[in-house]
Amino acid sequence: NKKQKLNEMLAMKLETTTMAVIQKEEGLQEPPEDTGIILVGVEVLHELTSVASACVFLLGLMYELILAYLKPFQYTFEALQKIIMQLEQQEMSTKVQIFHIIFTYRIILAGSSFVQYLCQYAP
After folding, report:
1. How many structural domains is the chain composed of?
2. Do residues 51 and 93 share a domain?
3. Nearest 5°: phi and psi at 34?
């Protein structure tokens, strides 16, 4: 009964979700049962291999469907698209250009690879 109520509440929340990467889990299993993408309340992709691949698909969908970036994530998605994926780099916003310069400079100074840099500062 509790589980059914929780599932109903979750379904209602997902119906009003604009954009999300979701993972369905039963207990603490690794890897999760399912990873998917919600756009405007509809699960458009599922059974993806990881959150990372879901993020790549989400960027691709946004790019292809010309969806506007959500305000709080505007620069995050722009940085992923233009720096990491190297798409439309000539149209980078000033904030993302500054981030790119600082980020590149720090990696060069540290003399380490991109992965080592991320691991060093990961929580």
Report:
1. 2
2. no
3. -160, 145
42: nearest Cα among 14, 22, 21: 14
pLDDT tens digits, 44-99: 999 998 888 888 888 788 777 766 666 777 787 788 778 777 778 888 888 888 88
Q: First vs last Cα of the chain: how many Å apart?
A: 37
Q: Are residues 53 and 74 in the same domain?
A: no
For residues 47 and 77, state if they share a domain: no
Q: What is the pTM of this model?
A: 0.55
Does 108 lie in the same domain as 77?
A: yes
